Amino acid sequence: MKIISKPYIILRRDWNARNPTDKMNYLSKINYLVIHHTTFNGDNKIGEYAKEAVLDIQKYHMSKKYDNQGNLIKNKWADIGYHYLISMDGQIFQGRDINFQGAHAYGLNDKSIGIALLGNFSHKELYPSQMRSLVHLLALLKQKYSTPSTNIIGHRDVINLNPDGTITECPGIALYSQLSMIRSSVENLLSS
Ligand SMILES: [Zn+2]
């Protein structure tokens, strides 16, 4: 099997990440690679603006969220929920430390890595440079953790593995429909 080179990854210090505010649980065995989209947050953000978008997502994840009636709908998390984020121009950002469980796929956080694509892919497909970075990163992780291709899944698939999962459209209909092609591209990269 070909050894996959490590892609260039923008480290936390380079996007001015906040330090985690709380203890986090260690990941157990990594069995799944879970794909997300970030919807409005990070849509059309490229270049330096993508760094700001990643920081905004971290701030959002680390704060409480209330509905119109003042009911708490999301508690604050210790850190950004995803392990990796990829902007539309293909920049890969380091999210939560890979040693720790993320907060991205309720019911599967203890054994998965969360990868978020910046943007809203309900109707549009991934951009070519974003796709290249995703396939490269997935190949690296698949090789490192011996993840079966069928375990490269969308957030919306989690509920089929664990009924405690969340009903969600994530990672968007258009991106979700690209998943089988993404799995094939990852396999091709690993076998080429
Ligand atoms: Zn998601």
Automatic annotation (TrEMBL):
Domain of life: Bacteria
PANTHER family: PEPTIDOGLYCAN RECOGNITION PROTEIN, PEPTIDOGLYCAN-RECOGNITION PROTEIN LC-RELATED
SMART domains (alphabetical): Ami_2, PGRP
Domain N-acetylmuramoyl-L-alanine amidase residues, every copy: 19-172
Biological process (GO), any one: peptidoglycan catabolic process
CDD domains: PGRP
Name of the featured protein: N-acetylmuramoyl-L-alanine amidase
InterPro entries xref list: Amidase/PGRP_sf, Amidase_domain, PGRP, PGRP_domain_met/bac
One annotated GO molecular function: zinc ion binding
Domain Peptidoglycan recognition protein family: 7-159
SUPFAM superfamilies in the record: N-acetylmuramoyl-L-alanine amidase-like
Pfam family, one: Amidase_2
Family per record: Belongs to the N-acetylmuramoyl-L-alanine amidase 2 family.
